[in-house]
């Protein structure tokens, strides 16, 4: 197996069998309709990804409330009318031999929604910063959530999980990283509340712990749940690895079966999809440190571009699974090709991050090296499936 025995050793999570340890991490595409339905483009994209031979395909951040959408044309899960399209998406992933999953998300103060007022734990705006791009952008000041609204969003996560399960998702991931609403609660930088949801870590974690417990109650004990965290905010005053090592067992006790370890937030966006300057495998030490304090499988992610590196990470016990985003966007066949030892024909990601930057454009996600990515154009509009 080309020296990739660990990568191609199946793993089972709550009875769900993953044929191998490679994960496609959640990537928003902007291929949905303006009102969040699955389109032919989205189906085409996940068809190409899931037939590439990977174990777990996590559909990108999908909104649990109307005002929680992170980018234009992302998918929604906040109403029953979205179940039909999502079921077609999960069916295609499953048919291709990968386990279908979805990331549930609320962007809070990072929401993209010209017609809504963003909400957050505290009325503190986010300053998006990229040193690499020389970019500094102040986002809209959010309104502070009331206690009733917080509980409603917790319920919305659980209700969306039930919808996703009904549609055929076999694992649910909570978007707890990158400065989205759950991370906004966790971080002292964006959470200045004086009630039960602010202050000490136990209070800042209440939102995610309640989301996990409410979801667990709604989907039953045998359904796999995962939480994605930024184990380091990579901004002074944000969540530290030390705190994340206390947080991780709290999340497991609340009911998650897998932890997905990322880092960064919009204030230091270069870490989210690590730029060339940031370097490769930057979150692997964080994954390893989290793995030491919990007894559930850990997914490592962040600038891991080939399966030999993934093999080494798993072999050295630093993580149990490896997510590769841009590498699979650049060449969705990377897993099959590597399995067959055909390393020479792999199209390599050049780390230009055009894929992430293009999310704000009408075209949706673009890739410089993968010209086969489905395109949105006036000739090929956003047709609902
Ligand atoms: C186009 C694009 C969309 C993304 N969308 C999401 C998302 O919806 N949710 C999320 O948690 N991370 C998102 N990310 C971050 C990726 O999941 C991943 O963590 C990051 O790209 C680092 O992995 P990589 O170096 O293998 O690409 C996105 C990244 C890209 C490039």
Task: Give an account of the 3D structure.
The chain has 385 residues and is of the alpha/beta class. The protein has one domain: Alpha-Beta Barrel (TIM Barrel), CATH 3.20.20.70. Helix content is 30%, strand content 15%. It is built from twelve helices and 14 strands. The protein has an eight-stranded parallel beta barrel, surrounded by seven helices. The longest helix is centred in the middle third of the chain and has 21 residues, at 147-167. It is globular, with a radius of gyration of 19 Å. The mean pLDDT is 95. The structure holds flavin mononucleotide. Flavin mononucleotide is lined by residues 25-28, 60-61, 103, 175, 177-178, 228, 262, 272-274, 301-304, 324-327, 355-356, 359, 365.
What's the CATH topology name? TIM Barrel
Strand content: 15-25%
Number of domains: 1
Q: If you average the pLDDT, what whole number results?
A: 95
Ions, cofactors and other bound molecules: flavin mononucleotide
Q: Specify Rg, calculated over alpha carbons.
A: 19 Å
CATH architecture: Alpha-Beta Barrel
- The helix/strand order is EEEHEHEEEEEHEHHHEHEHEHEHHH
Please report the number of helical segments: 12
The number of strands is: 14
Identify the CATH homologous superfamily.
Answer: Aldolase class I
Largest sheet: 8 strands, parallel, barrel
Distance between the ends: 38 Å
Low-confidence stretches: none
Q: Level of helix content? A: 25-40%
Q: Return the structural class.
A: alpha/beta
User: Which shape, going by the Cα principal axes?
Assistant: globular
């Amino acid at each position: 197996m080309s020296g990739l025995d660990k990568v191609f050793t199946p793993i089972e999570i709550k009875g769900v069998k993953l044929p191998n340890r490679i994960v496609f991490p959640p990537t928003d595409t902007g291929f949905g309709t303006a009102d969040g339905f699955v389109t032919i483009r989205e189906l085409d994209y996940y068809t190409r990804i899931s037939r590439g031979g990977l174990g777990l395909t996590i559909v990108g951040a999908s909104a649990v409330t109307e005002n929680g959408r992170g980018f234009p044309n992302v998918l929604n899960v906040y109403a029953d009318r979205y179940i039909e399209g999502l079921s077609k998406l999960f069916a295609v992933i499953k048919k291709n031999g990968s386990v279908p999953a979805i990331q549930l998300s609320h962007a809070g103060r990072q929401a993209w929604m010209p017609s809504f007022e963003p909400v957050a734990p505290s009325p503190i705006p986010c300053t998006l910063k990229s040193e690499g791009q020389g970019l500094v952008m102040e986002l809209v000041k959010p309104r502070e959530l009331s206690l009733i609204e917080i509980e409603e969003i917790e319920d919305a996560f659980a209700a969306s999980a039930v919808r996703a399960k009904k549609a055929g998702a076999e694992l649910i991931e909570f978007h707890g990283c990158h400065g989205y609403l759950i991370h906004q609660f966790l971080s002292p930088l964006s959470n200045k509340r004086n009630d039960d949801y602010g202050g000490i870590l136990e209070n800042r974690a209440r939102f995610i712990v309640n989301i996990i417990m409410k979801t667990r109650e709604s989907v039953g004990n045998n359904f796999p749940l995962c939480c994605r965290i930024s184990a380091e905010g990579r901004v002074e005053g944000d969540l530290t690895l030390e705190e994340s090592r206390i947080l991780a067992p709290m999340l497991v006790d609340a009911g998650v079966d897998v932890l997905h370890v990322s880092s960064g937030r919009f204030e230091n966006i270069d870490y989210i999809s690590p730029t060339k300057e940031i370097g490769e495998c930057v979150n692997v030490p964080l994954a390893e440190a989290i793995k030491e304090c919990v007894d559930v499988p850990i997914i490592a992610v962040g600038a891991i571009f080939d399966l030999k590196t993934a093999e080494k990470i798993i072999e050295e016990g630093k993580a149990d699974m490896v997510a590769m985003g841009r590498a699979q966007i650049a060449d969705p066949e990377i897993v099959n090709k590597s399995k067959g030892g055909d390393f020479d024909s792999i199209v390599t990601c050049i780390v230009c991050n055009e894929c992430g930057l293009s999310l704000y454009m009408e075209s949706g996600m673009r890739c410089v090296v993968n010209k086969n990515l489905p395109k949105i154009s006036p000739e090929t509009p956003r047709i609902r499936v």
